[in-house]
């Protein structure tokens, strides 16, 4: 049985992969784990049956046998711990990759969602400095990069990335990964078939 990921039946972003199921599907693509989709309308998400999977009636959810998870970060963390490919084998390296997962979701994503431009710019410049000209945040590509790029992509189309060229190149590098492209293709196919 393959894991099941819930996705919008009719994605409001028009299939550009900005919803939080994208990071989960991207992680599954990175580790080459096939999966199935649970297509949800907004009214499906309000139903009591769905509340048994997700107490807040949101997406994504992840079902694998008798394991049910919600919160995209927890799901990516589970995938990264379950399948090889998204976390380094050394214990300290792994903890630093997890640290970057938290940094993406706890430090950067809230700045983006809150729309506080000054604070966000400060954080972006700090991140730009830390990344420098490195390919990824800490050694090889990890779940930390996957979540950081998932969050930074939300700024595409705004001009805030304009003076952080290292971050722009970092996002482009991650988006060029075959696993990202496969996940994005599925987003656009879902939107087309809606
Ligand atoms: N912190 C949650 C946020 C989940 C979330 O906000 N999901 C959005 C889609 S990207 C959603 O379900 N929106 C509809 C709603 O909140 O009713 C996560 O990372 O999974």
Give the helix/strand layout.
Layout: E1 4-8, H1 21-30, E2 36-40, H2 42-46, H3 48-51, E3 61-64, E4 67-70, H4 72-82, H5 91-114, H6 117-131, H7 143-152, H8 165-175, H9 178-193
Helix pairs in contact: 1-4, 1-7, 1-9, 5-6, 5-7, 7-8
The protein binds glutathione.
Organism: Peteryoungia ipomoeae
InterPro entries: Glutathione-S-Trfase_C_sf (IPR036282), Glutathione_S-Trfase (IPR040079), Glutathione_S-Trfase_N (IPR004045), Thioredoxin-like_sf (IPR036249)
GO molecular function: transferase activity
Describe this structure in words.
By secondary structure, the protein is of the alpha+beta class. It folds into two domains: 4-84 and 178-193, Glutaredoxin; 91-175, Glutathione S-transferase Yfyf (Class Pi), Chain A, domain 2, CATH 1.20.1050. Helices cover 55% and strands 9% of the residues. It is built from nine helices and four strands. The protein has helices spanning 21-30, 42-46, 48-51, 72-82, 91-114, 117-131, 143-152, 165-175, 178-193; strands spanning 4-8, 36-40, 61-64, 67-70. It has a four-stranded mixed β-sheet. Strand 1 (4-8), helix 1 (21-30) and strand 2 form a beta-alpha-beta unit. Helix 5 (91-114) runs antiparallel to helix 6 and helix 5 packs parallel to helix 7. It is globular and about 45 Å long. The model has no long low-confidence stretch (mean pLDDT 96). The structure holds glutathione. Glutathione binds next to helix 4. InterPro entries: Glutathione-S-Trfase_C_sf, Glutathione_S-Trfase, Glutathione_S-Trfase_N, Thioredoxin-like_sf. Residues 8-87 form the GST N-terminal domain. It holds the Pfam family GST_N.
